[in-house]
Amino acid sequence: MAIKAKVGILGASGYTGAELVRLLINHPNVEIVLLTADRRAGQEMRQVFPQFTPVKLPTLVSIDAVDWAKADIDLIFCALPHATTQKVIKDLLGKAPKIKVVDLSADFRLHDPAAYQRWYKHEHSALELQKEAIYGLVEVYRDKIKSARLVANPGCYTTCAQLPLLPLIKAQAIDLDNIVVDAKSGMTGAGRSAKEEMLFSEVSEGFHAYGVGHHRHMAELDQEFSLAAGREVIVSFTPHLLPMNRGILSTIYVQSKNKSAEDMHAILSKAYANEPFVHVLPFGEMPQTRHVRGSNMTFIGVQKDRIAGRAIICSVLDNLTKGASGQAIQNMNLMLGYPETTGIEQVGLFP
Amino acid sequence: MAIKAKVGILGASGYTGAELVRLLINHPNVEIVLLTADRRAGQEMRQVFPQFTPVKLPTLVSIDAVDWAKADIDLIFCALPHATTQKVIKDLLGKAPKIKVVDLSADFRLHDPAAYQRWYKHEHSALELQKEAIYGLVEVYRDKIKSARLVANPGCYTTCAQLPLLPLIKAQAIDLDNIVVDAKSGMTGAGRSAKEEMLFSEVSEGFHAYGVGHHRHMAELDQEFSLAAGREVIVSFTPHLLPMNRGILSTIYVQSKNKSAEDMHAILSKAYANEPFVHVLPFGEMPQTRHVRGSNMTFIGVQKDRIAGRAIICSVLDNLTKGASGQAIQNMNLMLGYPETTGIEQVGLFP
Amino acid sequence: MAIKAKVGILGASGYTGAELVRLLINHPNVEIVLLTADRRAGQEMRQVFPQFTPVKLPTLVSIDAVDWAKADIDLIFCALPHATTQKVIKDLLGKAPKIKVVDLSADFRLHDPAAYQRWYKHEHSALELQKEAIYGLVEVYRDKIKSARLVANPGCYTTCAQLPLLPLIKAQAIDLDNIVVDAKSGMTGAGRSAKEEMLFSEVSEGFHAYGVGHHRHMAELDQEFSLAAGREVIVSFTPHLLPMNRGILSTIYVQSKNKSAEDMHAILSKAYANEPFVHVLPFGEMPQTRHVRGSNMTFIGVQKDRIAGRAIICSVLDNLTKGASGQAIQNMNLMLGYPETTGIEQVGLFP
Amino acid sequence: MAIKAKVGILGASGYTGAELVRLLINHPNVEIVLLTADRRAGQEMRQVFPQFTPVKLPTLVSIDAVDWAKADIDLIFCALPHATTQKVIKDLLGKAPKIKVVDLSADFRLHDPAAYQRWYKHEHSALELQKEAIYGLVEVYRDKIKSARLVANPGCYTTCAQLPLLPLIKAQAIDLDNIVVDAKSGMTGAGRSAKEEMLFSEVSEGFHAYGVGHHRHMAELDQEFSLAAGREVIVSFTPHLLPMNRGILSTIYVQSKNKSAEDMHAILSKAYANEPFVHVLPFGEMPQTRHVRGSNMTFIGVQKDRIAGRAIICSVLDNLTKGASGQAIQNMNLMLGYPETTGIEQVGLFP
Question: For C13, which residue in chain A has the nearest alpha carbon?
Answer without folding.
Answer: A196
